[in-house]
Amino acid sequence: MENTVSLMAKILGAHNVEAAGADARFAVEGAGGAMLKVSLEGRQQRFMAVLLDPTGVARCTVDLAPVAHVKDDPNFPGRVTLHIGKQLVHIDSRPTLAIEIVSVLDD
Fold it and tell me: Residue 1 pLDDT > 80, yes or no?
């Protein structure tokens, strides 16, 4: 989980990571004052995030588990993708903060 946290924090541009045991959290500040707060629980492989607009209003919250793996894509700078079951969760920090959840269909 340590590698996952490091990858996410680096790609998304977090300035500070707090860790306690297998758990970690960090925040990413977006342009215009928006903020993404991320929390990862190592034991449960759980991902939680809150996307706040510049006025502090929560615009999106997610609480998903278990995270199978996390990938970055050089074609999308500032994006990490979490694989959770049959879901792909794209977390973007550029050009704006965003969370997108996509279902993967079996062929």
Answer: no
Residue 45 burial (CB count, 10 A) = 18
**What is the pTM assigned to this prediction?**
0.91
Rg (CA), the chain: 13
pLDDT value for 105: 84
CA triple 3-9-10, angle to 5 deg: 90
pLDDT band at 7 (very low <50, low <70, confident <90, very high): very high
How many residues belong to the chain?
107
Match 């970055």 to its residue by tokens.
72
Q: Which residues contact 98 (CB under 8 A, 6 or more apart)?
A: 51, 90, 91, 92
> How big is the CA angle at 2 (ends 44 and 12), to the nearest 5 degrees?
100
Task: Give φ, ψ of 66 to 5 degrees.
Answer: -90, 145
